């Protein structure tokens, strides 16, 4: 923020995060009047879902506080993560993720010109990086590597060495991307503490770490790319969104494990807050926020709602009329006390998600390149292979006297069928006969 105090900048950087490790390091940088540098990374494996709105929305706060942000497309990590992305798909999925992230940022009004996109393989295959990786391998125990990746790397009974390398590479990324803190989900906490422990052993400084809460799946538990019933894809059409929300777990009066309520808290209300603040010019150091934004940029509040409303549930007057909430605590209290019915909540949430996804789907539909990449990155497993065309037969006429229309010998002749000599043979026979007539006869 151009005129904000270090304390105000720090509050903006850390608001709504679930946990901060090493916050004093960030405070020290801000106290010097400098701009902290951070990165958020994602491994392009399964199709990204709307849970990604949580970290991507938070990046707006970083830019408002003057943080330099790098987005890591961790293609090497995607390959190393057991059973998720075969090598021949990683390149296509990396490109697909880039399309999705750019579309989401544009829909949120976050200026992508202030973001630096980095592909992991651009530096993770260098001599220096690999030498540091070998140094880590000579220091880290198998137990520590497996423990660090327990919440992120696919766990199997007999883990491959590739999965054990994953946490070490993520730790090295902090050094090679030259950042002051890394941002990720709370599911990466063990990798973050692993980095804090092992980077200093290579002579590198320890970084800070910020973590956002994970959005529960629609049926409870973690929202996962590998479980289509737990999540909503960025490209899901409105009818699919409404169907998934309708079937989501949302027991009346019960806020525990309620993915519908959690989505309002983690995504819809923060986006509404960003939009309200933008309307008031409260974008701090990011004076370009909102420029070029696509889609409806108004908060998720009904017409005529109180000024501070972050989320509205529209109802017919005979059912009590509209409900307006300026905080999640108000919304949860209303739901637990059964003032707000699950059906009305689901309808409001589904409508809000459709609004969020409309500009993203339009960007996809307007881009032939993105559509082609989508088919290559996530081929239909049920698609039938193209049938090979049968080789076209070429007609070769039979030689003279052959074929089904050739003359047949008279019945009962008992002799071999007559052979009609070809034109060359007949000519030679005629020449020989003429020559014989010219020879003198023997007396």
Could you characterize what this model shows?
The chain is of the alpha/beta class and 443 residues long. It has a single domain, classed as HUPs (Rossmann fold, 3-Layer(aba) Sandwich). 44% of the residues lie in helices and 8% in strands. It has 16 helices and 8 strands. It has helices at residues 6-14, 23-31, 53-64, 75-80, 87-108, 121-124, 127-137, 142-148, 161-176, 189-198, 238-246, 259-279, 328-336, 342-365, 368-377, 423-438, and strands at residues 19-21, 37-42, 68-73, 115-119, 181-185, 208-212, 311-313, 323-325. The protein has a 6-stranded mixed sheet with strand order 1-6-5-2-3-4, sandwiched between helices. A two-stranded antiparallel ribbon has the order 7-8. Strand 5, helix 10 and strand 6 (208-212) form a beta-alpha-beta unit. Helix 5 crosses helix 15 and helix 12 crosses helix 14 (342-365). The longest helix has 24 residues, at 342-365. The protein is globular, with a radius of gyration of 35 Å. The N and C termini lie far apart (135 Å).
The largest sheet, given as strand count, sense and whether it forms a barrel, is: 6 strands, mixed
Overall geometry comes to globular
- Read across the widest sheet, the strand sequence of neighbours is 1-6-5-2-3-4
Tell me the structural class: alpha/beta
The CATH class label is Alpha Beta
Strand residue content: 5-15%
Query: Poorly predicted ranges (pLDDT <50, ≥5 residues)?
Result: 413-420
How many helix segments?
Answer: 16
DSSP summary, beta strand count:
8
Catalytic activity: tRNA(Tyr) + L-tyrosine + ATP = L-tyrosyl-tRNA(Tyr) + AMP + diphosphate + H(+)
Enzyme class: ligase
Region (Disordered): 375-443
Family: Belongs to the class-I aminoacyl-tRNA synthetase family.
């Amino acid at each position: 923020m151009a005129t904000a105090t270090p304390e105000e900048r720090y509050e903006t950087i850390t608001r709504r995060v679930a946990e901060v490790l090493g916050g004093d390091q960030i405070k020290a940088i801000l106290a010097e009047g400098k701009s902290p540098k951070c990165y958020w990374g994602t491994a392009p494996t399964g199709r990204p879902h709307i849970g990604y709105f949580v970290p991507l929305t938070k990046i707006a706060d970083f830019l408002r506080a003057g943080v330099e942000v790098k987005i890591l497309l961790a293609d090497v990590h995607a390959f190393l993560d057991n059973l998720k992305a075969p090598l021949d798909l990683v390149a296509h999925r990396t490109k697909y993720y880039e399309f999705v992230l750019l579309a989401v940022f544009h829909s949120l009004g976050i200026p992508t010109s202030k973001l630096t996109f980095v592909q992991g393989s651009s530096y993770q295959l260098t001599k220096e990086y690999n030498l540091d990786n070998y140094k880590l391998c000579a220091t880290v125990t198998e137990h520590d590597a497996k423990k660090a990746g327990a919440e992120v790397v696919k766990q199997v009974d007999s883990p491959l060495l590739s999965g054990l390398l994953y946490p070490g590479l993520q730790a090295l990324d902090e050094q090679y991307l030259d950042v002051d803190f890394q941002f990720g989900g709370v599911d990466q906490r063990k990798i973050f503490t692993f980095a804090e422990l092992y980077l200093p052993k290579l002579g590198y400084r320890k970084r800070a770490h910020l973590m956002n809460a994970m959005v529960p799946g629609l049926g409870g538990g973690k929202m996962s790319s590998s479980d289509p019933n737990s999540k909503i894809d960025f490209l899901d059409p409105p009818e699919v969104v409404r169907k998934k929300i309708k079937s989501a777990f949302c027991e009346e009066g019960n806020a525990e494990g309620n993915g519908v309520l959690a989505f309002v808290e983690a995504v819809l209300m923060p986006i509404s807050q960003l939009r309200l603040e933008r309307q008031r010019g409260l974008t701090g150091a990011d004076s370009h926020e909102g420029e070029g934004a696509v889609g409806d940029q108004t908060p998720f509040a009904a017409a005529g709602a109180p000024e501070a409303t972050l989320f509205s549930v529209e109802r017919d007057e005979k059912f009590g009329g509209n409900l307006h909430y300026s905080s999640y605590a108000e919304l949860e209290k209303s739901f637990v006390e059964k003032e707000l019915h699950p059906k009305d909540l689901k309808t409001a949430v589904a409508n809000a998600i459709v609004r969020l996804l409309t500009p993203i789907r339009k960007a996809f539909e307007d881009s032939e390149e993105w559509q082609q990449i989508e088919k290559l990155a996530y081929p239909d497993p049920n698609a039938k292979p193209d049938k090979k065309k049968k080789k076209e037969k070429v007609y070769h006429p039979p030689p003279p006297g052959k074929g089904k229309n050739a003359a047949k010998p008279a019945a009962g002749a008992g002799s071999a069928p007559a052979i009609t000599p070809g034109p060359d043979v007949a000519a030679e026979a005629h020449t020989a006969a003429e020559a014989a007539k010219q020879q003198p006869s023997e007396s």
